[in-house]
Amino acid sequence: MLSASSVLNNISAVLTGTDQDYSMTHSVFSYSNLVHAVSGAVGSVVAITVFYPLDTVRTRLQIDDHRKAKHTHQICADIIKEEGIMGLYLGWFPVVTALCCSNFVYFYTYNSLKTKFIQGKKSSALTDLSLAFISGVVNVLTTTPLWVANTRLKLQGAKLHTKVYEEAERKYDGILDCLMKIVKQEGFWSLWNGTAPSILLAANPAIHFMVYESLKRYFQRIFNTSELSGLLYFVIGAIAKSIATSSTYPLQVIQSRLRAGLSKAEKAQSMIQNILYLVKQQGIGALYKGMEAKLLQTVLTAALMFLAYEKIAAFTFRLMGMQIPIAKP
Fold first, then answer.
1. GO cellular component terms (predicted)?
2. How far apart are CA 246 and CA 21, in angstroms?
């Protein structure tokens, strides 16, 4: 079995140039990695488009301090009443753009690492966790500006119940305009607002992939097949994301608030200070505000995304005449 420590040592060897057998072209630039990356990106676009209203509800509850916490369907009804049906789809395009780029980077990095360090060997849950966390950090560092712009654009035109936030509203004309205005008005590094909790939140997809890969390998062995049913992929994805989201939700609240950039007091504080400040101002419940909507959105979206990802990847590999390996017992 390949241990997490040996994987980390191998990565260190690659980075320091001591791995003489390392082939960058073979491990990174391959059709297989590209298929996984494109499949993950397309799957995420399909999934977020279907469940986007749930993401809108989650964002409003996390950021709008004076909006009362209600059940998801009640918040949806309130938004429709205040802003019309399209209020549920504010900022859809920047979200899809950011998510597509983010998942492409994540799946490409994750599968590149798997190709180099796991292919042909038996993996373990700890190895999956290590590779997924590294992939998450790479993803955060490269795509955070897109997510900062995405959060700002999602709130543009929204009827916020926190008046001081409404007064601070800024006008942006698309993703590029938003990025340029943030740099001009708030400084270049404001594009990476929320990076600290985001790096810690790399644990979310890491836990997600660890649970998902473990369950997937288990059922592949049980049914002696490399390709499972769509329903089973959906259920496995839902279970894995439920565990990951429940364990990291308070950090996601802080991340969303920092990305929105509406509170100057919060932007000037560290992550721990932000958590304590929010608890002091609104109570411990504020760290879990919007969790119902988040669980519904993220679990259903992740389940549908993995179903689409696995089926698209399997179909593409069949067209290319490539075999999908069955997990080793």
1. peroxisomal membrane
2. 41
